[in-house]
Design brief:
This protein is α/β, with parallel strands linked by helices. About 35% of the residues lie in helices and about 15% in strands. The protein starts with 15 loop residues before the first helix and ends with a strand.
């Protein structure tokens, strides 16, 4: 199977308005999607990071996690992006000690709602094979559809090959190419709250430049990262 490399140039860009709108989509997800954490007596939140189109940005997340062992993140692996292979050894180490979870974000970041059933399965299966080969652990049952584009057919097709838990979000950092770190910090402040699943992207430095401030937000709101 050939390797398809996904970079920031080949990954479709979203406008800032698009990223801001992503934070509001939680009210419109199809039935069966996970957009918030189960209720708990513990105050907690989930910081989830997609894509990794910038290998150097992904490396900054890895380094931050290594320096902050109490911080937990769920990465949605875009297996065609080279950083996931470059940092595989360090990511596997973080995974094996329970600091991160590596879930499925397809191989090439296509809108699954536009693909045939067979192509949906191919996108998920190729990312799954990559995760098994590089991290020694299945990405099942969790997946995140690129751009949050999902419908009942995608849910059914994904479930037929073991991806039974589509994970969306309840609040976006609005992180993306051309987005300022001040915007990311403002959006993080808006959305970080108890029970939220938050979406971030490792496609540039806009989040990495404000790691300390974001970590302080979680701490000041007495939230455990899960």
């Amino acid at each position: 199977m050939g390797t398809i490399e996904v970079t920031r140039k080949t990954l479709f860009g979203l406008t800032l308005a698009g990223f801001l709108a992503m934070g509001e989509k939680a009210l419109a997800w199809p039935r069966g999607c996970i957009s918030a954490l189960p209720r708990s007596s513990t105050r907690r939140a989930a910081w989830t990071v997609d894509d990794g189109a910038s290998a150097s940005a992904l490396g900054r997340y890895v380094t931050m996690l290594e320096k902050n062992p109490d911080v937990k993140i769920t990465f949605f692996v875009l297996s065609g992006a080279p950083g996931w292979k470059k940092y595989a050894t360090r990511l596997k180490a973080l995974q094996d000690k329970g600091q991160i979870q590596l879930a499925n974000h397809t191989q090439t970041h296509r809108k699954l709602t536009t693909l045939s059933d067979a192509y949906i399965k191919q996108e998920l299966n190729r990312c799954e094979a990559f995760c098994l080969a590089n991290y020694g652990k299945s990405s099942k049952p969790y997946f995140r559809p690129p751009y949050g584009e999902i419908d009942a057919r995608v849910i059914r097709v994904a479930a037929s090959i073991g991806f039974t838990k589509p994970v969306l979000w309840y609040g976006s950092f609005a992180s993306g190419s051309g987005v300022s770190s001040s915007t990311v910090l403002a959006m993080a402040s808006k959305w970080i709250a108890n029970g939220r699943i938050l979406i971030d992207h490792a496609n540039g430095y806009c989040t990495t430049n404000v790691f300390p401030q974001i970590l302080r937000l979680f701490k000041s709101r007495n939230l455990k990262l899960v």
